[in-house]
C-alpha cells in the first residue's frame, strides 16, 4: 500500500540526512588498542576470514563485517537490496534484509527475494521482523519469512523508541520475551535479537539469556538514530516532532552496550553495530568481544551510488581492520578478540 511505500522512502531519505546521525556518540573514541611496535607477522598473512556456525553447519565468510538490516518491500528498496545482495554474494559477507513485515500481510511482497536471488544466489541473507509483529503473528507466518529469503538466520528487532514516536507505531511489546522463546524453539534457524540504534542494558541482556537465542546484535547509539528519523518525518506543527526532539540522544552507546554484555556474562554470541564507520572501530569491537560487526548507513549510501562504491567501501573497511590487526600483533580474529583493551 502507498502509505507503507511512502514511509519506507521517507526512512531512507531522512536516515541519510546528517541530522539523523548521533555522530561521535558510539563511545569508541575512548577505547584504545595497544600498539605493537614489533609484530611477529607479515602484513600479508593477516587473516580476517571467519564463519557463521550453527548446529554443525559452517558457512565460510571472508570477514566479520556484515551489512545491517535496512530495507524491504518497496520499489526503490528493491534496487538497493539487489546491489547489497550482489555484494554479499561476490564478497562472502552476511547481509541483513530490512523488516519483512509487509510479507505478513501481502504474500506477493515475497517476490522481491526471488528477484534478488536471481542476481545473488550465494548471498548470505538474514531475515528480519519486529518484535511487535512477532508477538501477534502465528509462527508459521514467521517461518515463511525465513523461507522466502532462504535466510541463514532471523533477526528480531526491538525498537520501542521508534514505535512510540511513529504516529502509526505498533506499541504493544507485552509478552515479547515469551514470543522470542517460542520462536527459538520453532524457527529452524538461529535467532538473533537486535536493537535499531539504542543499545542494550545489563538487565535486558540477562533476561534474554533464558530464551535460547543464538545471539544479540547490540546496535547501540552512535549512528543512525530512530528517534531523530521519526521526528523529522513529522511536521514541526505536530506534537510528536517535539517529543522526538526530547529523545534525540536517547539510548545506550555501542561501547556501553558491549561493556554491559561483558557485565551480564551472557553465553550467547555478541554481535556489534550502531555508528560503526571504519575498520578500526570494527577492530575495537572485536577486541571487546564481538564476533560479527554490522554497518548500516554507509552501505546504504554506497548502494545508491552502485557496485563500485560498495566494493570500495568494503575493501576500505577490511583494510582498516587488517591494519588494526597488524599493529596489535594479531594474525587472526581469534588473536584480536583476546587483545587487551584500554578503556
Ligand atoms: N533495523 C532493523 O532491524 N530492521 C529494519 O527494517 C531497519 N531499517 C532500517 C532502514 C534504514 C534506512 C537504516 C539506515 C537502518 C535501518 N535499521 C533497521 C537499523 C540498522 O539495522 C542499524 O541497527 C542502525 O541503523 C544502526 O546502524 P548504523 O549507525 O550503521 O546506521
Compact description:
The protein is an alpha/beta fold and 343 residues long. The protein has helices at residues 2-15, 75-91, 101-105, 111-119, 131-136, 139-149, 160-165, 176-186, 202-208, 226-233, 239-246, 254-264, 279-287, 297-305, 307-326, 333-337, and strands at residues 32-33, 50-54, 57-61, 65-67, 94-96, 124-130, 153-157, 191-194, 215-217, 269-272, 292-295, 341-342. Residues 11-12, 15, 68-71, 98-99, 128, 155, 157, 194, 196-197, 219, 223-224, 273-276, 295-297, 300 line the site of flavin mononucleotide.
List keywords for this structure.
single chain; 343 residues; alpha/beta; eight-stranded parallel beta sheet; two-stranded antiparallel sheet; 14% strand; globular; binds flavin mononucleotide
Description of the molecule:
- With 343 residues, the chain is of the alpha/beta class.
- A hairpin with a 2-residue loop joins β2 and β3.
- The mean pLDDT is 96.
- Strands 4-11-10-9-8-7-6-5 form an 8-stranded parallel sheet. A two-stranded antiparallel sheet has the order 1-12. A two-stranded antiparallel sheet has the order 2-3.
- It is globular and about 60 Å long.
- It has 16 helices and 12 strands.
- 48% of the residues are buried.
- Flavin mononucleotide binds next to α1, β7 and α14.
How do the strands and helices of this protein lay out in sequence?
Blueprint: H1 2-15, E1 32-33, E2 50-54, E3 57-61, E4 65-67, H2 75-91, E5 94-96, H3 101-105, H4 111-119, E6 124-130, H5 131-136, H6 139-149, E7 153-157, H7 160-165, H8 176-186, E8 191-194, H9 202-208, E9 215-217, H10 226-233, H11 239-246, H12 254-264, E10 269-272, H13 279-287, E11 292-295, H14 297-305, H15 307-326, H16 333-337, E12 341-342
Parallel strand pairs: 4-11, 5-6, 6-7, 7-8, 8-9, 9-10, 10-11
Antiparallel strand pairs: 1-12, 2-3
Helix pairs in contact: 1-10, 2-4, 2-14, 9-12, 10-11, 13-15, 14-15
The structure holds flavin mononucleotide (FMN).
